[in-house]
Every structure is written in C-alpha cells, then in structure tokens.
Amino acid sequence: MAGPMKMRATLAGGNTEVRVLMSHPMTTAQMKEGLHHIRNVVVKHNGRTVVEAEISQAVSRNPVFSFRLKGGAKGDRIEVSWLDNKGETSKIEAAVA
Amino acid sequence: MNNPSRSRLRRSLLSALGLLLLKPLAALAAWNEAAFGAKSAVDALNSLGAASPAPSKDILIEAPQIAENGAVVPIEISSNIPGTTSIAVLIEKNPFPLTGKFDFREGALPFVKLNVKMGETSDVRVLAVAGGRHYAATREIKVTIGGCGG
Fold it and tell me: What is the ipTM, given to two decimal places?
C-alpha cells in the first residue's frame, strides 16, 4: 500500500537541494505481489514544473530521490507528486528551509 | 424520466465525458512503454532515439564499486555537458535495463540521486541528452546479493 511521503528542501551553495521519500512497494513482475511501481514523478518549484521523470520497477522500494534546483529562496514552494501503474497517486508540498 | 433507453444514453454520455476528462491527464503522464519494456540496453537506447551515443567524461556517476545488497544500490548522477536536458539510467543486465529517465526543465540542474535494484553485477550506463545530441558514460557495479526477485 502506498503511504505518506516525506520531503526536505534546503538551500545549499546557492541552489536548492530537494530530498524526497515516497512510501511505495515498487514490486517487480517477478515478485509474488506482481508488478506495482511508480511510473511518473513531477517536481514543481513555485508551481512551475522543473523535473519530470519516468521510472521503472527497478527503482528500490520506498524510493528516495535527490534533485537540485537552480537558485531558490527560503519559503519557496516545492511540490513533488507521483503516479503509479495502477493509477494511484500522491503528492507532498514543502517550503524551502 | 425513467425511460431505460434514455438512462442508458445518459450513462454512455457520462462515460464518454469521463473519458474526455481523463485523456489530458493520461497525456500529461507519459511513460515510454517501448523503452521501458526493452529487454536489452541497445533496444532501450533505440527506443529513446539514442542508438549511438558519444562517450563522455562529463557525465559523472557516483556509486559503490561493490554493492552488498542489490535491492538498494545508491547511484548519484550529474552531467557537466552544457545544456543537458535529460538523463537516463540503464542497468545492462537487469531484465528491463531502462530504470529511469529524468527530464530537466529550466530551473533544474542535471542531477539526480536514486536507489536502484540490481539483479547481478552489471555495467550501469547513463545517457545524457544535450542540444539534441546523445552522450553516454558507463560504470560497473559489482553486486554480492541480487535484488530483483524475492
């Protein structure tokens, strides 16, 4: 079952480092649970899409991603969302600290 | 009002409307079925339109030389090729090599860190797209215990 996400966005060296954790089984077709994996990940910075990813079943269970955004300021809104192969979806929003 | 054929009509109109509303969402969430379904890195690269990428030292792959647990192998990738707009990760010996494709729009740096599953020791190939050209770098990661089945 897909669960809550966690995210941290911090300023580092003039850029914004985003670290996000997604609760997801990410099971492969070979596993007894059957194929269930996140397919799409979208990162938005103040509402503007900055990263769009397509991922496979070979990304580890409970995926953790780090991204780097140019610039950024304290309080900027970062949003990360995902969509899986069964149509389940989740998102999280946080302010840059 | 309770005419059965009319309510059937209403239902089919509603479901058609539903399909119309769902379509833009599906279009937004693109997933390259052919590339992700490819069983070799060569086929996956072909499906990505990157049949013969040029080798590049400006694609940096940071990963352990030996991964004890193939279920969680951390890989950090960045591209110093100016104008990099996309990075793809291919694990050559996995059943489906293409693991991820990351498109970076204005405002993002060509950098990603992720954890992947590896069934066995394999070359990990990273493809970068910059100015419509394709570049690649490869790095071998040794795996002690594979992490794809279970």
Answer: 0.96
